[in-house]
Amino acid sequence: MLGISIFNGLVYGSLLIICASGLAMIYGLRRVVNFAHGALYMLGAYIGYTLSLYLNIWFALLLAPLAMGMIGVLLDKAVFRPLQERDPLSVLLVTFGLLLVIEDLVRAFWGRGSLSIEVPALLADSIELFGNPTPLYRLAVIGLGVGSMVLIWAWLRFSRTGLYVRAASTDPLTTAMMGVNTERVNALVVGVGTALAGLAGVAAAPMLSLAPSMGADVLVDSFVVVVIGGLGSLGGALISAILLGQVQSFGTIYLPGLSAVLPFLMMIAILIWRPSGLAGNRV
Amino acid sequence: MNTLLSFDKVNAYYGNAHILHDFSIDVKEGESLALIGRNGVGKTTFVNALLGQAKVRSGSIRLGRKESARWHPYMPAKEGVMVVPQGRCIIANLSVEENLLLGAATGRKGYWTVPKIYGLFPILRERAHTPGTALSGGQQQMLAIGRALMGNPTLMILDEPTEGLAPVIVDQLGDIIRQVNEQGTTILLIEQNLHLVARVSRRYLAVEKGSVIAEGIVDPEQIEQLQQFVVV
Asked: What are the boundaries of each domain within chain A?
């Protein structure tokens, strides 16, 4: 029982970290509190659904995030960039409006009913892990979470572009002064962040049913993760996603009445202890 | 001599505040020019107009062969103009070496490489992997200069580099800036510290109320004659 709870917590934590790291990156560079992030996660799942019908789920896992990445670049150019001089509150409202628009578009294209994606045949079985039957697909989701974190970390830490991203997240003007086209860096990061939301959406799809409102819970939990981790910090987000995954998983079993508020209780407790989040202000 | 940078009757604003009034300046290739003046006369606004951070409503700014009234902050670097900003602006979450690598973002090739910068400022090599902002003020200024040199500039603009530094460090930096100029990089020094101007610059422009009001040759023996432009 204990093992299963920890395992399920890790699965949810992995999805959260993929989704929340995108949110954290977009906030880190654009200083945009993106309420549409959950809707983008949902849109990723739906695009993945259609791709899995016409091709198969492997293509869906690959192409849906790519498509979402392109949508992200467009989002940056069409929305975030023109609004960058506005106050954060009005940008927040615009992203909230986007959320509603995306949900309605999805309802119009895919209908209101819930849909589902089949678990890929290759990963449909379960294996015995620490004495518990463990679905391979869920194991693969943890692998996906770990893999994407390692890739993002290596990208930020070792590549040229990663250096520019880190620099621009603390001091965009000086970074530009050195010759970095920070607008292009911003578009890229919003693209990557949106692709991550989409990736989390497709990866989650075979474990639950698709509905236009499916982004709401993930959005709230991703915000909790980003706030607990320290706004814009990926390392902090990683730790808080793992924590939140466990809290959710154990909460539903041992404190079912409280499970909906547990993330917020956890957030309050951590913010009292460290007001600027686990990682402070580092990226 | 070629003109690297010229402002022709530029009028620049922050919002509705009119800061630069018909501001004109020509920087010639190879020279070492000082822009002097009191606080608040528009020296930094000149840099901000070049970086597109102050709004230019009339006049034109020419860099090399490019002319425009609206520059984006990343464009001057691509044309070979690197700025050592006021207050140094070392990036806090990058190491010393990463700050230097950031300076090479344009990919302009030339004399300056990371080892060459370490040769110029050996202390930076010792502290290569510490966060840039963990350095002392003087070392941060060295890093800011090194970072600008990494862009292999034809023109390096230094905005009040001596602010808050001890006199012995100021002299050290002055010698290095002169050395960089002698190697062929054009220098535009924005300063109130005439001691440094005497050490580094050969020509000066004096700014008051947003316009250039005087210019001439810097005579280190009679530097006190320029006091009138910087003393309140």
From this structure: 14-214
From the CB of residue A140, how many other CB atoms can be counted at a distance below 10 Å?
20
The closest alpha carbon to B76, from B110, B51, B48, B101, belongs to B51
State the best of B74, B90, B95, B98 to mutate against chain A, taking most chain A CBs within 10 Å: B74
Residue contact A163–B53, C-beta within 8 A:
no
Q: What angle separates helix A136-158 from helix A2-30, to the nearest 10 degrees?
A: 30
Cβ within 8 Å, pair A179-B93? no
Cα A99 from chain centre: 15
Place of tokens 């915000």: A223
A179/B74 Cβ within 8 A: yes
| Contact: B85, A171; criterion CB under 8 Å | no
Contacts of A92 (CB under 8 A, 6+ apart): A32, A33, A35
Which H or E run contains A143? helix A136-158
Residue in B closest to A179 by C-alpha:
B74
Residues of B in contact with A160 (CB under 8 A): 101
Across chain B, mean pLDDT equals 92
Give the model confidence (pLDDT) of A190-241 as tens digits.
Answer: 999 999 999 999 999 999 889 888 988 899 999 999 888 887 678 888 889 9
Contact (CB<8Å) B102/A164:
yes
CATH number given to B1-79+200-232:
3.40.50.300
Complex ipTM value: 0.92
Record: contact B85-A180, CB cut-off 8 A: no
| Shortest CA distance from B80: residue in chain A | A179
Pairing of strands B203-208, B32-36: parallel
Gap from B106 CA to chain A (nearest CA, Å): 5
pLDDT of B141 reads 95
Question: What digits encode the pLDDT tens for the residues B165-207?
Answer: 999 999 999 999 999 999 999 999 999 999 999 999 999 999 9
Beta bridge partner(s), residue B18: B13
